[in-house]
Amino acid sequence: MRIALVGDRSPSVRSHVRIPLVVEALRERDDIALDPYWISTTDVSGLERFDGIWMVPGSPYRDEAGAVEAARIAREQRIPFLGTCGGFQHMLLEYARHVCGLDVAHAENEPGAREFLLTPLACSLAGHEGLVRISPGTLMEHIMGQSTTMESYICSYGLNESYKQTLAGHGLVFCGHADDGAVRAAELPGHPFFLATMFQPELWGDGRRPHPVISAFAAAVVRHRAGREAAYTS
User: Fold this and answer.
1) How many CA atoms lie within 13 A of 66 on its CB side?
2) How far is 147 from 144, CA to CA, in rounded Å?
3) Are the C-beta atoms of residues 118 and 93 closer than 8 Å to each other?
4) What pLDDT digit, counting tens, does each position of 138-173 carry?
5) Cβ neighbours, 10 Å, residue 112
6) Torsion-angle region of residue 123: left (phi > 0), alpha (psi -120 to 50) or beta?
7) For 119, phi and psi rounded to 5 degrees?
8) What is the pLDDT of residues 29-70, one digit of tens each?
């Protein structure tokens, strides 16, 4: 099962080093063999052929438009999607622009813009852990099986909370929050799997055991591949 790791691979990005270990852990612990392909944001053509799309950390990406397009393809083509850190930010940007019709920017990418969907955090979370409160009745709650989780961050940008109601009004569900109510995770009901987290589940533990969110994404990839194969043979 082929998954696209959308981001600009660099040995200096901690999560990029950790992800291959997590993929191996999925094979050993969950018996799910994923075949990952690193896809640069400068060329996201052909993503429709993948069984899953994981937009990995490492922003600012080389091509914001490519990152946004990857999220759009996953959403519209109903391909399982996981966005972490920068992937979370650019999933929100795609949804705001293409579903909500908002003309908004990312402060990190377009500092001169008038309307920012993603803005600098009052206190950077880079290198910190934080408690995430999980909203009841959400996919995230089903995945985690608990109401709170302690997660790792390497992040300095988050959702401009003044847009939260608009995004929610167009169907996006905010399934994880910090103690102060700030958004930490979002999901799209009705999609096979469309989930993004501001925290980085790939940094959970020592990498030898997949985070439940990553295991759930991998399971969705398996279901998506099975559905494709059934369609081909019918």
Assistant:
1) 19
2) 8
3) yes
4) 999 999 999 999 999 988 899 999 999 999 999 999
5) 6
6) beta
7) -130, 160
8) 999 999 999 999 999 999 999 999 999 999 899 999 999 999
Asked if 92 contacts 109 with a C-beta cutoff of 8 angstroms, the reply is: no
> Distance of alpha carbon 221 from its chain centroid, rounded?
14
- Residue 9's CB is within 10 A of a number of other CB atoms, namely 14
Angstrom distance (rounded) from CA 140 to CA 131: 14
Which long-range contacts (C-beta less than 8 Å, at least 24 apart) are formed by 177-181?
A: 177/132, 177/133, 177/135, 178/130, 178/131, 178/132, 178/133, 179/131, 179/133
Length of the chain (residues): 234
165-210 pLDDT tens trace:
999 999 999 999 999 999 999 999 999 999 999 999 999 988 889 9
Find, among 141, 117, 143, 139, the residue nearest to 188 by Cα: 139
The rounded distance, in Å, linking the Cα atoms of 17 and 218 is: 19
Q: CA of 111: how far to CAs of 106, 120, 124, 160, in Å?
A: 8, 11, 18, 14
The answer to whether 86 and 58 are in contact (CB under 8 A) is yes
β strands within the chain, DSSP E: 2-6, 35-39, 52-55, 81-84, 105-106, 116-120, 128-134, 148-153, 157-159, 173-177, 183-187, 194-197
